[in-house]
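fyi for ur records
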Amino acid sequence: MLETDLDSQLFGSSESTTTPTAGCVVRAEGGTLLFDDVAQLGPRAQHALTRLVTERKWYRDDGVHVPAEVRVVALTTHDLGQEAASGRCRRDLCEHLGALTIQIPPLRERKADLPVLTDLFVEQFAREHVRGVRGVSTRAMDMLMNYDWPGNVGQLRHTLERAIVLTSGPIIHHHHLPAEIQTSGDAAIPMLGLSEALEAYEKELLQDALRQAKGIRSQAARLLMTSERVFSYRLRKHRIDTRRFRTR
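which gave:
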C-alpha cells in the first residue's frame, strides 16, 4: 500500500477536497486504534503515529491540527528495540509504544488455548460461510495439538477457515487439514490395514458424537442415526468411557 493511501486511511482526506472522508483516527475518537505489525509502517506513517501518541493531535493537509482522544494499541512480531537500533523504526515511537508492553507467548507454548480458539474459529467461520460445521474430529484435534504453528493464531484461523470451506459434513476431519499438519511429528498417520482403518474411523465417529452430545448416549446415538442399544454395544467394543465427555 502506498503511504499516501495509508495517510488517507488514518487521517481521511482534506476538507478542501470535494468529498472529504473521515479517517480511522477520527472514527476511533474516544476509543482504541489498533495497529497490526506496526514495525512495518513506512517513515511517513511512523512520523504521523509518533505525533499522534506524543502530542495527542494530528495535522490536516492544510496545516490545521486536530485534537485526538484515542488509545493506541500496536501489535508486532518484531523486537522494537532491535527495530529501533537498526533504523527500521523510529526510536521515539518505539519508546512510547514500549511504555506498556504485553508479551504473548507463541501458540506452540500455550497449547491449552488451542481447543478454545478452535471452537471459536469454527463457530465464526461456519456462520460466515453458512456451513453446518459443528466441530473438529478427535484425530484432527490431535494433529492441531501436535503442530508447532509457526504462523501462530493467524495460521490457525486460516487453516480452520480453509477446512470449513472444504468439508461437506458437520465435522472437520484430518483429511481436511493441510498436508504439513497431517504429517507433522507424532501427528503423522500410520499405515493401517483396511479393517484397522475402519475400526479407527468408527471409534473416532463415536467419540465425536459423544463430544457433541456432552456424554449423553441417547443424543449421541441420534446424531449417528442409530439406536441407543447399538451405540452402547459399539462403545463397549471400543472401550469408550462416556463419563470423560460429560461437562459439569
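The chain has two domains: 3-97, 108-245. thats all i got for now
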